[in-house]
Amino acid sequence: MQDGTPTAPSLPPLRNRTFDEIAVGDSASLERSLTAEDIQLYAVMSGDVNPTHVDHEYASSSRYSGVIAHGMWGASLISALLGTRLPGPGTHYLGQTLEFLEPVRIGDTLTVTVTVTARDPSTQQVTLHCRCVNQDGLTVIEGEAEVVAPTEHIERDRATLPEVRLDTGGGGTRRLLDHVRPLGAVRMAVVHPCNALSLSGAMDARAAGLIEPVLVGPRARIEAAADEAGVEVAGVEIEDVPHSHAAGARAAQMAAAGEVEALMKGSLHTDELLSAILPSAAGLRTKRRVSHCFLMQTPAYPRPFIITDAAINVAPTLEEKADIVRNAIDLAHAIGVEQPRVAILAAVETVNPRMVATLDAAALCKMADRGQISGAILDGPLAFDNAVSAAAARIKGIESAVAGVADVLVVPDLESGNMLAKQLEYMGDAVSAGIVLGAKVPVVLTSRADPRDSRLAACALATLLAHRYRSAPP
C-alpha cells in the first residue's frame, strides 16, 4: 500500500490436478490440531451431542478417560484434502471406507495423507489410500477413497470465510436461575440502594423470585431512586437510616442476628461495606479469610469457571491463599462440581525461587497432598495457557489432571486477577457473577458497569449459598 501500511500475507490460490496429471504414488498431506472449539462447532453443525464428545464429566469416567473428537471430524480432514489439493477443485467424491483405530483428543495434531493407488482412464476415477496419524506416530484413521478427478484445470482464489465464535447465548445464567429459583427466595439486605442502577438490580432479583429485599438506607433517597428507575417499592421493607455508614452497620447487624441471610452492595463503595462486615464486633467473621470469587462463563471455554481473588485480598500471603482456595472449593461444590480442578496460576509452570507465586503454588499443592486443603484436585504453578488449554499443556509436556480443564483459577494477587477478569469480560465476551465468601452470610458485590445478567447471576449465587449455609454454616 502507498501509505506504507503492511498488508496481511495472502494465501496461494487453489489449483487442481487433472486426471492426466495424476500418477499412482502421488500424495498430498495437511496437518491440523484439534481444539475444544473444533469439537463444539462440529457438534453444533451435526447435532451429534453424544456426551463422549461434549460432556467432560461423563467423558472422564468413560473408557476414553476424557472428551474425544467425533470420528467424522477426522474424516472431514480427508475430504478437505481431496477437495483442495489432490485432486483438488472439481473433484467428484464417490465414496469412502474408513476404520477408526484410535481416539483423537484435544491437543492432538493429525497429519492427514492421501496417496493415489489406482487410476481408471475409462472413467477418470482415482482410488486413494487415506491415513491420519497423530503426533505420537499412531494411525488413528485409515481407509480408501474413490473420486472422479477433474479433466480441466481450475485455479481459484481462496474464499474468505467468516470468523466463527461460539456463543453460549446467556444459557449459563438461565440454567443457574432455573436451578436456584425453586429453592425459594431469601431475605437479603440491600445496603444503600440510593441510585437507579443498584435499586433496579435488587428489584430485578426480587421479580426473578431470588430474593426478598430489605432496602437499608435513607428512605427519601431510596424513593427518589425508585422514581428515577421507574420501579415500585411499595410493599418492600425499608430500614430507614441516615447515611451509607449507618446502612452498612445496620445491614451487618441484621445479618449477624439472622434477620437476613445475605447482603448486597448498593451505591456505596466496596471498602465502606467491607469495613462494616469485617470487624470481629460485627459478628459475621468465621475462621476463614474473606475472599471474592468471580463465577465466569466465556464462549472460548467449555465450562463455567471461578477466578479468585480479584476484588478483596491485595497481596495475599500463603496462609491467606489457602483460605482463598478453600472458599473457591466451597463455591464449586455449591454449584455442583463435586471435585473441582484448581489451577494455582503464575507466570510460569515451574518453581522459581525468585517468583513467590510459584513457591506459594507448590506449597498449596503440598498442603492439599497432606489434607490441609480438601475437596479438590490442585496443581501448580501453572501458567494461564496451561491451565485452560490442553494443547498448550501437551506442547510443554505437562502431565496433569488439572491442566487444560481447570474449574478454578487462583491468581497470585488482586491486580492480576482483576485484569484477567476484566479482560475476559470486555474482550472475551464472558458473563460473570461476583460473590464474597468466608463470612457467615454470602455478600453480593456489584459494580456500576455490571450488566443485568451479572447482577441476577450474583443474586442467584447468594441465594444458593444461603440455602446451603442453613444446613452447613460456614
Structure description:
It is a single chain. The protein is of the alpha/beta class and 474 residues long. It folds into 3 domains: 14-150, Hotdog Thioesterase (Thiol Ester Dehydrase, Chain A, Roll); 184-286, 3-Layer(aba) Sandwich (Rossmann fold), CATH 3.40.50; 289-438, 3-Layer(aba) Sandwich (Isopropylmalate Dehydrogenase). The chain is 35% helix and 22% strand. It has helices spanning 36-46, 51-54, 56-60, 71-84, 171-180, 196-207, 219-229, 244-256, 270-277, 318-334, 356-369, 384-388, 390-395, 414-427, 452-471; strands at residues 14-15, 27-33, 92-100, 109-120, 125-133, 139-148, 155-156, 186-191, 211-217, 237-240, 262-265, 291-297, 305-308, 341-345, 377-382, 408-410, 431-437, 443-444. The strands form 4 sheets. The chain has a 6-stranded mixed β-sheet with strand order 15-14-16-13-12-17, with helices on both faces. Strands 2-4-5-6-3 form a 5-stranded antiparallel β-sheet, with helices on one face. A 5-stranded parallel β-sheet has the order 10-9-8-11-18, sandwiched between helices. Helix 5 (171-180) packs parallel to helix 15, helix 6 packs across helix 7 (219-229) and helix 8 (244-256) runs parallel beside helix 9. The longest helix has 20 residues, at 452-471. 42% of the residues are buried. Residues 1-9 have low confidence and may be disordered.
